[in-house]
Write a structure and sequence with these properties.
Number of helices of chain B: 7
Distance between the termini of chain A: 21 Å
Oligomer: heterodimer
Low-confidence stretches of chain B: 1-16
Mean pLDDT of chain A: 96
Radius of gyration of chain A: 23 Å
Largest interface: A-B, 86 and 65 residues
Distance between the termini of chain B: 25 Å
Low-confidence stretches of chain A: none
Number of strands of chain B: 0
Order of helices and strands of chain A: EHEHEEEHHHEHEEEEHEEEHHEEEHEEH
Largest sheet of chain A: 7 strands, mixed
Chain lengths: 560, 156
């Protein structure tokens, strides 16, 4: 039976970057993916019109999901409700766990917002007294951000703002009308609102055509102008002849021999049979919570609490982005005639964290993503308008048309302070269809997040009003259990297999390498020490790229 | 609300859904009332067709057939509407005059909106503006291949 150099679990941002780097260096790599091989013609839905769908995007019975269990308006095989693969939650644990079962993982549908962490983001504990410091610095990761940006393509502009380091950028798309209004409003308040930064190319790159501005990125981009792992990194790695991808392979356990990882046992979902892949090193990129689950389910005499988990930290410090949204309409814009105001599917402008130079009521920061334009109407698009204007008939119909395209959603994404009391663990009573014990979530927001969300609410309202907007709705509220936070839904879970200097309080070193198991690497969002406000995908990609180079160097030296 | 939250449409648990088995949930009479209500909420005008042209009643029926919660809310609401009309006008809703129907709709829509009305209204808006007729009415021009993005033509 063949022994591979490296077995990678997962094919998203982390798995894709590791596969690319390792195969470039000549390693013999096998990758396990729990879903099918990507077929954009089948799996992507971006050019399907809502009226061509049986439920118009509302899903079976209004659930949002079609008969096969896919979200009607999303890439197939991505969602939170896989009936064969459930998870459980403690009471009041608000996390909604979105997963992908498809080559490319969640990079198939992410919002493409691509923001580098700042220098301060790596030094949370030193600067705020809360949370933790990373074992690495911005300077150590910066070269990898650049490699990633050059490879995947990111639009943006150099702004020289300390909280939002500049990257290697393609030109950004021009602002939409409401973007201009928000920029003008923010300026009046002394708040910067700069061109957006997103992994969507506006100029050709490595054979990929520039964006065609259909505005549907989150439903997949078959032209691959919006970046996904399964359309570039994985095919490139396969083209080297060094990568074998095994689809429908649900990893169950990492096997151990003489204190090191010896391979991965998986269930073939088609045959329901259990197979084993032998490998000299294992890289986990299964997603933050799946990677923790896999370690916790890999119990052995040497590691009775789960692999690499003598510290008991695996599954702990589970974070999401603190998030709050305010939706407003800008009456002045209703005078504009209908025009193409859709643009990319991501942000054309955004507000970077601007209060980094002063004392706030909370630690950490947030940024604000601006979503607007005359987008394809979603099934819920006009609900807030109908609530705001209680009427029916021709006047309601006209009101909807008047306000459509003037609506702007300000979406704040903020830091969450890591807390060991927010965690996931193995549910002793529930197994999935493959017989694998499932996760039980105990996700908790903290006081810092609630205080931050209150500040988000005040500032988003202020920006919306300064832009000439009238508020239509907001997430949460002062009387809600989580304040102004929107509970779950942002899908930025991070931190369950954290890196750190001290093996007693962390699982991985600064290279995503397990303190206790040298040939085991966890390179997805699980490795994050903290969760700064920045959307994590580009950082996952950079960290995985760096970890894979380290793995390659160490393997060549014989140090694994 | 950004796009991702927009995908979490009505928050219905799939376990609560009945399989569509070809049997339509509404009686013909119930469907006719749903058609009447949806058309009153979004009527045809000189610019574009209304909810019935956009096949909104059929969509509501499909969703109701699949979702027991909707069945309960919709058939309960339709029964209450008939009760109201019988009491006020001595006729069930379908047999009322146009003016009486309008007054009955006003009674469930204003000033405090009943959950039944809210559901019918929200489903009507959802169905209408995701239809080809509704999108044309809005002047939606996106979801096409374009050579570039021109940006805002200028703020008014």
């Amino acid at each position: 039976m063949k022994t591979y150099d490296v077995c990678i679990v997962g094919s998203g941002a982390a798995g894709g970057a590791a596969a690319k780097v390792l195969t470039d260096r000549g390693f013999d790599v096998v990758m396990l993916e729990a879903g099918p091989t990507l077929d954009v013609a089948q799996h992507y839905t971006e050019h399907k019109w809502t009226y061509s769908l049986l439920h118009r995007g509302l899903g079976v019975g209004g659930s949002g999901y079609d008969e096969a269990g896919n979200r009607e308006l999303d890439v197939e095989h991505i969602g939170s409700r896989f009936k064969d693969e459930p998870y459980t939650s403690a009471p009041d644990s608000p996390l909604v766990w979105t997963r992908a079962r498809l080559v490319g993982g969640r990079t198939n549908h992410w919002n493409r917002v691509a923001l580098r962490f700042s220098e301060a983001d790596f030094r949370q504990r030193s600067l705020t007294g809360l949370g933790s410091d990373w074992p690495i610095t911005y300077q150590e990761l910066a070269p990898y951000y650049e490699k990633v940006e050059r490879f995947i393509g990111v639009y943006g502009t150099a702004e020289n703002i300390p909280s939002a380091p500049d990257g290697f950028f393609q030109p950004p798309p021009k602002p939409r009308c409401a973007d201009l209004a928000v920029q003008a409003g923010a300026k009046r308040l002394g708040i910067p609102c700069i061109p957006g930064r997103a992994a969507i190319i506006t100029q050709p790159l490595n054979g990929r055509p520039p964006c065609h501005y259909c505005g549907q990125c989150t439903r997949g981009c078959r032209m691959h102008s919006a970046f996904s792992s399964g359309q570039t990194m994985i095919p490139q790695a396969i083209a080297t002849g060094k990568l074998k991808v095994i689809p429908f392979a649900m990893a169950r356990e990492i096997t151990v021999r003489h204190g090191k990882a010896s391979g991965v046992t998986y269930i073939d979902k088609n045959t329901r049979r259990e197979n084993h892949i032998a490998a000299k090193a294992v890289v986990l990129g299964a997603s933050t919570c799946e990677s923790a689950r896999l370690l916790l389910n890999s119990r052995s005499a040497a590691f009775p609490n789960g692999l690499a988990n003598s510290s008991g930290v695996v599954g702990r410090y589970l974070m999401d982005s603190s998030a709050h949204g305010v939706t407003a309409y800008i009456p002045a814009l209703s005078k504009l005639p209908p025009h193409d105001d859709e643009g990319t599917g991501s942000v054309h402008v955004y507000i970077p964290w601007w209060k980094y130079d002063r004392k706030n009521d909370f630690a950490g920061g947030y940024h604000v993503e601006v979503y607007t334009g005359r987008q394809m109407p979603s099934p819920t698009e006009f609900r807030p308008i109908a609530r705001e204007f209680p009427q029916y008939g021709i006047s309601l119909k006209q009101k909807c048309r008047e306000i459509y395209g003037t609506v702007v959603s300000l979406a704040a994404r903020g830091e969450m302070i890591p807390d060991e009391r927010s965690y996931c663990e193995i549910d002793p009573n529930v197994r999935d269809k493959w017989g694998i014990p499932v996760l039980r979530f105990h996700f908790k927001w903290g006081d810092n997040e609630r205080a931050m969300a209150k500040d988000m609410n005040q500032n988003l309202r202020a920006v919306a009003e300064a832009a000439g907007g009238k508020v239509l709705g907001e997430t949460g509220g002062p009387d809600r259990p989580h304040g102004y936070l929107s509970a779950g839904g942002v899908a930025h879970e991070l931190g369950t297999v954290r890196m750190g200097l001290d093996p007693k309080t962390s699982v991985l070193n600064g290279y995503c390498q397990a303190h206790e198991v040298k040939n085991l690497f966890v390179t997805d969002g699980a490795c994050f020490t903290t969760n700064p406000d920045k959307n994590p995908t580009i950082s996952i990609t950079a960290l995985s790229w760096r970890a894979a180079e380290h793995l390659a160097d160490e393997a060549r030296k014989g140090s694994l | 609300m950004n796009r991702r939250t927009a995908l979490l449409v009505f928050g219905v648990a799939p376990a609560a859904l009945a399989a569509a088995n070809g049997n339509k949930y509404f009686t013909e009479r119930q469907l006719a009332v749903i058609r009447d209500l949806s058309e009153r909420i979004i009527p045809a005008d000189s610019d574009a067709g209304g909810a019935a042209d956009a096949k909104v009643p059929e969509l509501i029926e499909l969703l109701a057939t699949e979702n027991p919660d909707y069945q309960q809310q919709l058939s309960g609401g339709l029964a209450s509407l008939d009760e109201f009309c019988l009491k006020e006008y001595s006729h069930a809703y379908p047999d009322c005059t146009g003016e009486q129907k309008k007054l009955a709709l006003d009674a469930i829509a204003f000033p405090s909106t009943t959950p039944f009305y809210t559901l019918v209204r929200d489903l009507t808006l959802a169905g209408y503006f995701t239809s080809e007729i509704g999108m044309k009415y809005l002047g939606y021009q996106g979801n096409h291949f374009r050579d570039g993005f021109p940006g805002c033509p200028g703020l008014p």
